Amino acid sequence: GDPAVQRQLATRAQDEARALIGAWRAGPFDRRPDAWFTYHLYHKAPDWIGPAVSKALQIPYFVAEVSHAPKQAGGPWDIGYRAAETAIKAADGIVGLSKLDAACVLPLLDDPGRYHRLAPFTGLSPFTEAAGRRNHLRKIILGRFGLCRRGAEIGLGAG
Fold it and tell me: Which of 33, 41, 120, 134 is surrounded by the fewest CB atoms within 10 Å?
């Protein structure tokens, strides 16, 4: 939360953004990025590079799993907080993984359609089915490797 360190990081990031912009503008157009993507943007990890590069190269700026915590305003992380807020507002699209984050991110957006919630999607059926076969599979493995007696001694259901 040291403001001097945050300012130094911001300056270094701005230098890096200028270097990237210069290199991409000097090179072939087809070697430029089509978009910029930043993951896990928040007050301790603001994106000082992506918005600048995206604006200069006129490419979309996308972010995922962003967090905005108004309680950080005016605190030791205020510089990073403000930078993260600016980046969130500049994003063309945001993928949100947490309902809690959405509550603080959505008010920053002039178009809530830029926010896309990605709900958990792991199907549980393979794990549930495997758990039901656990003892049977354990016996097969222990038998295959000649561990039945030792497995029974340590309570692995071999036997």
Answer: 120
Sign of CA dihedral 135, 140, 143, 145: negative
Structure tokens at 111: 């178009």
> Whose CA is closest to 54, among 36, 27, 32, 30?
36
Per-residue model confidence (pLDDT) at position 159: 45
pTM above 0.85, yes or no: no
**Considering only CA atoms, which of 76, 118, 85 is closest in space to residue 104?**
85
CATH class, range 3-117: alpha beta
Q: How far is CA 8 from the centre of its chain?
A: 24
Output the CA–CA distances (angstroms, integers) from residue 101 to 17, 105, 112, 140, 146, in the order listed.
27, 6, 13, 46, 52
- Supply 18's token pair: 């200028």
| Exposure of 153 in the CB half-sphere (CA atoms within 13 A) | 4
User: Is the Cα dihedral 19, 25, 31, 34 positive or negative?
Assistant: positive
